[in-house]
Amino acid sequence: MEERETLADLLDVRLLMSSAHSDAIRLVLDAVDDHGLHRVRDAADRATRGDVPLGQASGICALGALGIDDESSRDLLVAAATGLVGSADSGVTEAVARGLGLCSTDGRTTLALLVLADDGDASVRLAAVQGLAVPAD
């Protein structure tokens, strides 16, 4: 059986998770330049469906960055966020808010961002409110 690439094979997921939005977007786009959109998108999607919180969070962040310009990535982001918005791991829920915030001009992100804006963790609330505040220019 062929082993599938992980997102960590294509980019530094720890750097992705510790980066500011603009740096995270650049990191993901550099991975796309190096490996191609389909490889990065597929690896990010698989990561969101895994059971490792860092993988879930990095997959969501990558899909958010890709979803800015790629509708298929945005579709995967919204589907993954629906399943992860209730995660017990605040790192995952903060990543959901960050990822959705990158694509907040897509109306499908609004409900989840509103739910996260009422989260018990301050960093999740902040990320959600920042995502809701993105202008639709």
Distance between the termini: 46 Å
How do the SSEs run, as a string of H and E?
HHHHHHHHH
Question: How many strand units?
Answer: 0
How much of the sequence is in beta strands? Answer: under 5%
Mean pLDDT level: 93
Largest sheet: none
Any idea what the shape is? globular
Poorly predicted spans: none
Indicate the radius of gyration in whole angstroms. 13 Å
The number of distinct helices, counting runs of at least 4 residues, comes to 9
What share of the residues lie within helices?
A: over 70%
SS content category = mainly alpha
Please describe what this structure looks like:
With about 140 residues, the chain is mostly helical. Helix content is about 70%, strand content about 0%. The chain has 9 helices and no strands. α6 runs antiparallel to α7 and α7 runs antiparallel to α8. The N and C termini lie far apart (about 45 Å).
List the helices and strands and how they pair.
Elements: H1 7-10, H2 13-18, H3 21-35, H4 37-48, H5 53-67, H6 71-84, H7 90-102, H8 110-116, H9 122-132
Helix pairs in contact: 3-4, 3-5, 4-5, 5-6, 5-7, 6-7, 7-8, 7-9, 8-9
Summarize the structure.
This protein is mostly helical and about 140 residues long. About 70% of the residues lie in helices and about 0% in strands.
